[in-house]
Amino acid sequence: MSSSLSSTNSPRTTSAPTDALPSPPTRLPEGQGRQGAQPVRIVLATRNAKKCRELQDLLLPHGIAVASLAECPPTPDVVEDGDTFADNAAKKAREIARALGAWTIGEDSGIAVDALGGRPGVYSARYSGPGATDQSNNDLLMEELAGIPAERRGARYVCHVAVADPTGAVRLQVEDYCRGRIAAEPHGTNGFGYDPYFLIREYHRTFGELGPVVKQQLSHRGRALRRLLPALLPLLGAGQAEPDGIGDERGISVHH
Asked: CB burial class (10 A; 0-12, 13-18, 19+) of residue 108?
């Protein structure tokens, strides 16, 4: 385990009390998380409903309920001007945690294509410019990869997750990725972003074709969250991590 210790404390700036956050959506299934207890609430610094649903599916069985910004009191927009996924994730976690006075997950993710020198990278969500949509981003990606053969269309989805406490101090960070290849045509309607083009070679399927359970096991986001869980659960006082080794703590940065 790689960890770093810091005594830096950020001042708390609270514009909305924690009890103003939405209630957890449901009790935990029988035998999961903390016996008979309501899930611990944590904010995900995004209004992306599909991304929030993915994290909810990953964390709720462990006693953590995720609320998106769409469910919270108004907060300032966070300008994602970092040079790395880590910069953006930490900034989102810090600023939203301070605004709401609540534990917050900041997550930044995107796709890095080998033949494009790692682009679009941190610009994945706005790759095609102002007003970018999944369709326009994918259209630009296909245009830039035109004529490039399959064996040179390798790519990886990257996910960086940062967790800030209610004062805005970043307490945990982790990054992971999933390797694949960019298909020449879209396949499937599941997921979002570049999922219909991101081919998992071992499965001969794109993320757009894979169901949510399989995607959770393979995706960059699923891998990052599973690595985060062993440190996150005791920090929040939630359920215990699965004792099967999937919660690998390598690369986790822990701040006290």
From this structure: buried
Task: Output 160 or 30, whichever has higher pLDDT.
Answer: 160
Domain locations along the chain: 18-239
Question: Other CB atoms closer than 10 Å to residue 115's CB: what's the count?
Answer: 15
Average pLDDT, the chain: 83
Region of residue 36 (left: phi > 0; alpha: psi -120 to 50; beta: else): left
Q: Which of 108, 165, 176, 195 is catalytic?
A: 108
Sign of CA dihedral 84, 86, 92, 95: negative
How far is residue 147 from each of residues 73, 115, 136, 186, measured CA to CA in Å? 48, 11, 19, 16
CA 244 to each of CA 91, 226, 248: distance values in angstroms, whole numbers, following the listed order? 32, 11, 10
Taking 70 as the threshold, does the pLDDT of residue 27 lie above it?
no
For the chain, give the percent of residues with pLDDT over 70: 78
Catalytic residue status for 244 = no
pTM of the complete model beyond 0.70: yes
In sequence order, what are the beta bridge partners of 123?
none
Q: Hunting for tokens 């890095």 — which residue is that?
A: 112
Topology at the third CATH level for domain 18-239:
Maf protein (3.90.950)
